[in-house]
Amino acid sequence: MVTVTVFTHTSCSSSRKTIDWLREQNIPFIEKKLTDQGMSFNEFKDMLRLTENGTTDLLSVQKSVYKQAADQLDEMSLRELYSFVASHPQILKSPIVVDDNRIQIGFSEKEIRTFIPRHDRIAELKRLLDNK
User: Fold this and answer.
1) 132 residues of the chain, pLDDT tens digit each
2) What are the tens digits of pLDDT across the range 109-123?
3) Which of the chain's ends, N or C, has fewer CB atoms near its CB within 10 Å?
4) Secondary structure, 3-state, the chain
5) Contact indicator for 102, 46 with CB cutoff of 8 Å
6) Within 10 A of 107 (CB to CB), how many other CB atoms are there?
């Protein structure tokens, strides 16, 4: 079974919606609160691997910490960037939902459905088609 990990910020309403939705769908997950638990270097690398636009997808450009370091971020090595993010977890968008093959940043009820196991999605589609 693929493990879904949800990286959250405590006061984020989208994080709460995501956690509630996963519970309603009975999808097992691990929640990691970014300010309390952070993330490992490997988790950070895996997130980057799954994004379409790298750090642009993960970092919140509205945060003051981003604005203060924006010109330096492009020059950082991966290890330096990880250290910066680990020291300033508020710079990450939230929630970040990942498994081995997928990533979703933010809450979208339509997009999060990809985390429903495939066999469950197929069964739901068959039920819908049978009821027509």
Assistant:
1) 568 999 999 989 999 999 999 999 999 999 999 999 989 999 999 999 999 999 999 999 888 888 888 889 989 999 999 999 999 999 999 999 999 999 999 999 899 988 988 777 777 778 878 876
2) 899 988 988 777 777
3) C
4) CCCEEEEECCCCHHHHHHHHHHHHCCCCEEEEECCCCCCCHHHHHHHHHHCCCCHHHHECCCCHHHHHHHHHHCCCCHHHHHHHHHHCHHHECCCEEECCCCEEECCCHHHHHHHCCHHHHHHHHHHHHHCC
5) no
6) 20
Q: Using CA atoms, how far apart are residues 111 and 41, in angstroms rounded to an integer?
A: 26
63-86: pLDDT as tens digits: 888 888 888 998 999 999 999 999
List active site positions.
12
Residue 125 CB partners (closer than 8 Å, separation 6+): none
